[in-house]
Design a protein that fits this description.
Helix content is 30%, strand content 21%. By secondary structure, the protein is of the alpha+beta class. It is elongated.
Length: 108
């Protein structure tokens, strides 16, 4: 039993133009100048990459850290408004943060 395309289209719900809301999406330019460095102090010789210089609230820093850890496929933590990522990932983190709209201090 074939369905006529007119029957199928008549069952679709199309909202009225008056009831739909238009949502405008704007890319927010981050004004934080972040510092990205690698470090091995007090870590038994293991290398970590530290991202510091955030001026936003802790929830946003946690969200950024979660995204970075996911994209790098590694662990990390947030302490004192700095993100600590396991491994020597300075160039990758610099690229990811620049794409996300952050400015990197000392980047050439």
């Amino acid at each position: 039993m074939e369905k006529d395309w007119k029957d199928i289209l008549s069952k679709l719900h199309v909202p009225d133009a008056e009831t739909t809301e238009i949502v405008e999406i704007k890319k927010v330019v981050k004004k934080d100048k972040l510092i990205v460095v690698t470090d091995t102090k007090h870590r038994k010789g293991k290398i970590v990459t530290i991202v510091s210089g955030f001026t936003c609230d802790e929830d946003e820093i946690n969200e950024v850290a979660k995204q970075l850890k996911s994209k790098c496929g590694t662990g990390g933590t947030v302490k004192d408004n700095t993100i600590i990522i396991q491994g020597d990932l300075k160039t990758k983190l610099t690229t990811l943060l620049t794409q996300d709209g952050y400015q990197i201090k000392g980047k050439k």
